Amino acid sequence: MDGGHNCMTEFIVTINNRKFELSISEEGKVLIGDRYIRTELTEITKNAYVIRIGDSVYEISSNKLGADKFGITIDACYFDTTVRTKLQETANELQKNKSRLFHHSDVKAPMPGLLLKLKVKVGDEIKIGESILILEAMKMENELRSPASGIVKSIFFSEGQSVEKDSIIMTIE
Fold first, then answer.
1. 148-153, Cβ contacts within 8 angstroms, sequence gap of 24 or more
2. Which segments within the chain are labelled E, that is strand?
3. Tens of pLDDT along 89-111?
4. Rounded Cα–Cα distance for residues 115 and 118 (Å)
5. Which of 133, 14, 160 is nearest to 80 (CA)?
């Protein structure tokens, strides 16, 4: 290697919604967070391994579930994991944030009825599941809840107006 520079392959491993930074050097040294872990991996079959971590030995098997999803069994304990390179993880986070920024939800009338009460106005910030309007249908009052968190961008009907099934009552961004 040039000038003792140690090349590390960096991964982001997600297990039970917890993210871990893991780096592997060309010599096989494993860095988890800021701690080096002495490891030795032996392949038994295509998807089965024995790994020595420090003085402990574990049997591991893995099944690829998708592009970056794996089912891992360590000594009979099963984990769903996501393994991405640092670059893939950054791209994934950017994509999630982009879709969140430009996402909007239409609130549609689930049935024909009379819009009795609007509980929000344009510009209000609302949370998913929050009560946003009362729709009277077949002599019953139906409370509609927000399908998304965001800001009320548009309201297309007024209280007292009739709406048809699937009419867009409001838009949330």
1. 148/103, 148/105, 148/172, 150/103, 150/104, 150/105, 150/125, 150/126, 151/123, 151/124, 151/125, 151/126, 152/120, 152/121, 152/122, 152/123, 152/124, 152/126, 153/104, 153/122
2. 8-15, 18-25, 30-32, 35-37, 39-45, 48-53, 56-64, 69-74, 77-85, 105-108, 113-118, 125-126, 131-137, 140-145, 150-155, 162-163, 168-172
3. 888 887 776 655 556 788 999 99
4. 8
5. 14
Q: Give the predicted TM-score (pTM) of the model.
A: 0.49
CATH 3.30.160.20 fits 105-172, yes or no: no
* CATH topology assigned to domain 2-90: Glycoprotein, Type 4 Pilin (3.30.700)
